[in-house]
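Hello,

Our lab assistant flagged a job as stuck in the queue for most of the afternoon. It eventually completed. Since we weren't sure the result was trustworthy after the delay, we are filing this so someone can double-check. Below is the sequence as submitted and the structure that was eventually returned. Let us know if re-running is recommended.
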Amino acid sequence: MINPLLQQLKKYGPLSPEAEKDIELKTKRLLKKKNDHLLREGQVLTSYFVIKKGVLRAYIHRKDKEINVWFGEENQIFGAIMPMYANKPSPENIQFLEDAEVYALAVDDLEQLYQKHPELNLIGRKIAEELCVILEDRITSLHTESATERYQSLILQQPNLLQRVNLGHIASFLRVTQETLSRIRKR
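-- returned structure --
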């Protein structure tokens, strides 16, 4: 069986056979059920994850509402940023919206692998740079785009989500009501 986490890491740069073997040994496979949480607000969970099968959402609580901040699908590297990079409790919750198979690599293990296999440092930097671009795009989108433009961007970036995620979650992510989302979709 091919490790999807290893496959994703290799997209960012070459790995020696030794590094591949060590990553394999440190990777954990998790099976999750729909509605299970991988992380709850206030926890410190420091791992990189890749979904082999399934979809999830990250959300925060604000004024008795759940606000979706991102969605994860197959073959995406993800993790909670505050715990991973600042060793602080997470402000977000990560919940599975489908039964899922996930592969995880603990940040502590990754730090050891960085020491042992220097090529992983370049891969880690490239992942962090990509994450910065994604976050900058999201911030800019929320401040400068209309709801319709945000919806169109979501369709371009993650077209499969519309069939897999309920419209309430999509509306929350776009920061609109479900009624507004319905009007946008009709256009």
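-- support follow-up --
The delay was a queue issue, not a problem with the job. The result is valid. The longest helix spans residues 119-144. The first strand starts at residue 28 and ends at 32.
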